[in-house]
Amino acid sequence: xxxxxxxxxxxRFLKQAKDNSxxxxxxxxxxxxERPQDLIHLFVGGSELHGxxxxxxxxxxxxxxxxxxxxxxxxxxxxxxxxxxTAGDERRNGPDDVDVTLYSLRKWAGMAAKGNATxxxxxxxxxxxxxxxxxxKIQAGRGLFLSRNSSKQFLGFxxxxxxxxxxxxxxGKKGQRPEYIGKYxxxxxAAMHGLRLLYECLELMAHQRISLPRPExxxxxxxxxxxxxxxxxxxxxxxxARAVEDAVAGSPLPEKVDRRAISELVAQVHLEFWRxxxxx
Length: 280
Description:
50% helix, globular
């Protein structure tokens, strides 16, 4: 389900979303998601999660995971995801915009099993304002979702960022960031995210975790703030990519995930949630 906010509704949401006293669950309800009681995970993502936020330059990204009703999970009409944005689909997000991205547990687990970098962040972010029991069970089994194969996703995602900087690839769905390019000569936020992904992959391969916020957040903020030249960024990225390749070769992680074990965990969490009667 993709929901784009009408102008009036979006402005009302923005006004309330920027009030720091508003609970995250209330903001999710304002987005139109009808079953906040089914959420088992909820957190603020993006640059704030990584520790690389600079001033009031970023939008607000809310991420979460929910349990489908039995008829959705087992029937003909699954409810796999909910996406809502005040920016709509026509323009890039600004600092006052809010995105809400929620996945069913089955949808998220499938993404994480493939090594999707964004999905793996969920495992290392602590749940906010929801009953943590179900997600703690997922986190207790997070090793099931980790594999050397996920390095391909991180490296590919990072490579896309750098190729956009050098013009080898298109600018993406909503274009580049002219405010950064005009000020620094290149998209420093894209450069920051590219390096972040490489650092995350290096830590994941070597230590089987992703630290949030990032230990190298000061370096990432330097890059985002234009203190590095593009040449220095690309040289550092090349060095990190080589380190990642070495870390993958010596990683204690299995080559691939055990999809059957993941399925068993996901099924257990569903059944326990349903038995507690936490759906209506």
